[in-house]
Amino acid sequence: MLKFDHVSKVYKGGKRAVHDLNLEIAKGEFICIIGPSGCGKTTTMKMINRLIEPTEGAISINGVDIMKSDPVTLRREIGYVIQQIGLFPHMTIQENISLVLKLLKVPENKRRARARELLSLVDMTPDYLELYPHELSGGQQQRIGVLRALAADQPLILMDEPFGALDPITRESLQEEFKKLQRKLEKTIVFVTHDMDEALKLADRIVIMKDGQIVQCDTPDEILRNPANEFVEEFIGKDRLVQARPNIQTVEQIMSPNPITITGDRSLSEAIQLMKQHRVDSLLVVDEMKILQGVIDVEIIDQKRKKASLVRDVVEAEVFTVDKETLVRDTVRKILKMGMKYVPVVDDKHRLVGIVTRASLVDIVYDSIWGVDELTKIG
Amino acid sequence: METISSILYYYSQNAAYVWVEFYRHFLMSAYGVLFAAIVAIPVGIFIARYNKLSTWVISLANIIQTIPALAMLAVLMLVMGLGTNTVVFSLFLYSLLPIIKNTYTGIRNVDHALLESGKAMGMTKFQVLWMVELPLAMSVIMAGLRTALVITIGIATIGTFIGAGGLGDIILRGTNVTDGTPIILAGAIPTALMAVIADVVMGWLERNLSPIKKRKGSLKKNIAERAA
């Protein structure tokens, strides 16, 4: 749907930001453009909605050359999200979300309904409609920023490091939310970032740029397996290459299938005995259907053993879990980044099927350094 | 004490006259600022766009500001003759600088990210000005109008020398009679009062036009409602 044909951009003073760029993006594709600063990634993106005009070559959307259409009309058909969020402080959330609709002269009641509908996409209540941006947290503001780009149902959305200014935890949850949203709405997205983790997680295809040229353009898996050259390898980083071992794909393949569990109706003394027996410091709490209820650890038991007697009364219900279909490299990153000791693995019905511990990670790293072959020889 | 009772006596005898001059004084100042706003706000917007012109335009307005008020009136009188119009025109000139400067600063200080997102969302140049830049700069522009109005209320006092009337008339009468202190004060006090009131009212307007809406009560109420 979007096509770059030998596009170059030379700024005044002769600086060549983009050099002979060719790229074709299909409908519904999520493209991440990544590279070191000054590699021309933002210039490339801004050329699409003519915030910057190309010096040579042609960019076309659905076969129509963008230079032939009116820039204002063109921009109203393309969503745009920036790192600084850029919500207008003097407008309410409702007005901010529906601004493009207002420019397109959609009547007020329809704009209001649309804003409501969009807010529900990110699980925010309609109460927020009348608030002003400064009354929201950074994460909520950027959610609104994303919604604003979706308001007129634009098929193409440009994003310039949209999650760059958020704290790591908010960023993580927003990325996940956004990826789900994108799958649901089937938007074509051009996403500029300098964060490789983000690109690997979100993109269908990653475009790696250097000095205004494309170095490699491939799916995340392909880039991890076959980096085009040393630059790409260095850019991805050694640890990610290790994690991308092709024979280990989903979490299901590396988890330990029999985590120590307990049901909610047992007593705390039984729980502590079970821990002692298996030499672990926490237990996963499940019900009869093996659906994960939460977790208890020795600390909780120690604190609450005087007040409660049953496991169900002290269980910590907020547990971070991964789906068994998740790719290993995402899980590894989460475990390492968030400093978790273990992550329960669940299936689509939230039934506990296994656990990934730091010990499982040691296995992967061991495999990748000495290889599976040697292991089988020893075995 | 004697002075105060004399002032009150003066007011009781000349209430209608004082009111007429007060009103006249205010109108001269207000018209001066109004005409200046009509010219200076567009000029301010223009030089914010073409930044190179800003030094020239602002220096020119600065020079006007340095001319002593009496000299300015005298020179204008040579061209425009006696009367109210000359005073209004000189007040117009004195109002230009604060309004141009504040409009320029207000527009220039609008966050670049907001301009970019406005443009990228498909606003025309005029829409960016009307929907983003002006609302966000409005409180700064209002601050300029506030300064201008306070300055002109002061300067309008000397309009009396070229026969424009206003509260300056009363002060001048006071200086022309023996023991005129009460009469001078009877003219000076309303002038000062007018300046203070103008400042307070414009300050209130300025805060109300601030783009960041502070609404303590309703925000708390909102949160309480959500919690309930």
Automatic annotation (TrEMBL), chain A:
Keywords: Amino-acid transport, ATP-binding, CBS domain, Cell inner membrane, Cell membrane, Membrane, Nucleotide-binding, Repeat, Transport. Its EC number is 7.6.2.9. It is found in: Cell inner membrane. Coiled coil: none annotated. It is an enzyme of class 7 (translocase). It catalyses: a quaternary ammonium(out) + ATP + H2O = a quaternary ammonium(in) + ADP + phosphate + H(+). GO terms for molecular function: ABC-type quaternary ammonium compound transporting activity; ATP binding; ATP hydrolysis activity. CDD domains: ABC_OpuCA_Osmoprotection, CBS_pair_ABC_OpuCA_assoc. The keyword ATP-binding applies. InterPro entries: AAA+_ATPase, ABC_transporter-like_ATP-bd, ABC_transporter-like_CS, CBS_dom, CBS_dom_sf, Gly-betaine_transp_ATP-bd, P-loop_NTPase. Residues 255-314, 315-374 form the CBS domain. GO terms for cellular component: plasma membrane. One of its GO terms (biological process) is glycine betaine transport. The keyword Repeat applies. It is a peripheral membrane protein. PANTHER family: CHOLINE TRANSPORT ATP-BINDING PROTEIN OPUBA, OSMOPROTECTANT IMPORT ATP-BINDING PROTEIN OSMV. Belongs to the ABC transporter superfamily. This is Quaternary amine transport ATP-binding protein.
From TrEMBL, chain B:
PROSITE patterns: ABC_TM1. GO terms for biological process: amino acid transport; glycine betaine transport; transmembrane transport. Keywords: Amino-acid transport, Membrane, Transmembrane, Transmembrane helix, Transport. It comes from the Bacteria. Coiled coil: none annotated. It is a multi-pass membrane protein. GO terms for cellular component: plasma membrane. The chain crosses the membrane at residues 26-48, 69-100, 148-171, 183-205. It is found in: Cell membrane. It holds the Pfam family BPD_transp_1. Residues 22-202 form the ABC transmembrane type-1 domain. PANTHER family: GLYCINE BETAINE/L-PROLINE TRANSPORT SYSTEM PERMEASE PROTEIN PROW (PTHR30177), OSMOPROTECTANT IMPORT PERMEASE PROTEIN OSMW (PTHR30177:SF4). Belongs to the binding-protein-dependent transport system permease family. CysTW subfamily. This is ABC transporter permease. It comes from Neobacillus rhizophilus.
